[in-house]
Amino acid sequence: MALNLQDIPRVKTISKEDFIKNYYKPQKPVVIEELTFNWPAFSKWSLDYMNGVAGHKTVPLYDDRPVDYKEGFNEAHAKMKMSDYIDLLKSKPTKYRIFLWNILKEVPELQQDYRFPELGLKFIKGLPMLFFGGKDSHTFMHYDIDLANIFHFHFQGEKEIILFDQNQNDFLYKVPHALITREDINFSDPDLKKWPALKRAKGYKTILKHGETLYMPEGYWHYMKYKTPGFSMSLRSIPKNPKNLGRAVYNVFFMRNFDNLMRRIKGQKWIDWKNEQAILRTNKYIL
Q1: pLDDT tens profile 36-86
Q2: Which of 155, 164, 196, 215 is spaced 20 to 30 A from 5 at the CA atom?
Q3: Backbone conformation region of residue 120, classed left if phi is above 0, alpha if psi is from -120 to 50, else beta
Q4: What pLDDT digit, counting tens, does each position of 236-286 carry?
């Protein structure tokens, strides 16, 4: 038995009016297949191109190891020269990913290669972020701390995407005081006997290819797995829903600091308690 996932709707192009009416206002995801076709990035951006413009940079790397109490919130697991990392991506599968790499800050000339979509959203101009991954590397199922509206543009290869909205929280084994589900759930092929509540969750899926754009509404849970080595860029727009904006402020200024404090005070016991609570609280809902 598989997860209850429907295909994310797809359009070739879309007008601002149709986007606002059909996706932004109802907060539904969509893949826009040709949004980047007139960008320089569409023809230029590849792993080799990134190596040429940023190979000398040292980049933070993350893998799929479980959260450790000794590590801070979103603390990198390793660092490497971009040129060495891209050689690694091209040579063999690796769990190492680049996460939230600010290209505007690190390689300003790259901002000439893309455009901010004119679809009625106000983007945070200073926060275009790049994400890289090797074949079969993946993110844990999570949602973003700021609950932003996100445009996610993929380049080189293919990327598997699974989404859930916040209405599915009761069925996802959400870890308290965190932005993730249980890390030992493989959302590509979940064990539904071990995680039975997932059978009740209703979500979305797609495969992103080079140049395609995914719109992710506010606070959507997302799991991303690189089918091939590749990279993506995200542009963000603050939440329009006042409730979500309030949650974003809470996450940034309280939840993150509280979690870091508890890690320092209780150590691994805090992490273990949260993981246990993810199961107990989810079972409470399904029973």
Answers
A1: 999 999 999 999 999 999 999 998 898 776 666 665 555 667 888 999 999
A2: 155
A3: left
A4: 999 999 999 999 999 999 999 999 899 999 999 999 999 999 999 999 877
Per the structure, the count of domains in the chain is: 1
Question: Which ranges in the chain belong to alpha helices (H)?
Answer: 16-19, 40-44, 47-54, 82-91, 103-106, 242-250, 256-266, 268-286
**Is 244 strand, coil or helix?**
helix
Selection from 9, 1, 4 nearest residue 171 by Cα: 4
CATH code assigned at 281: 2.60.120.650
Angle (CA) 40-80-43 rounded to 5° is: 10
What is the phi/psi pair of residue 22, to 5°? Answer: -95, -20
Q: Give the Cα separation of 251 and 257 in Å (integer).
A: 9
CA distance 163 to 29: 9
**Residue 255 structural domain:** 4-286
CA of residue 18 relative to chain centroid, distance: 25
Global pTM? 0.92
Distance of CA 208 to the CA centre of its chain: 13
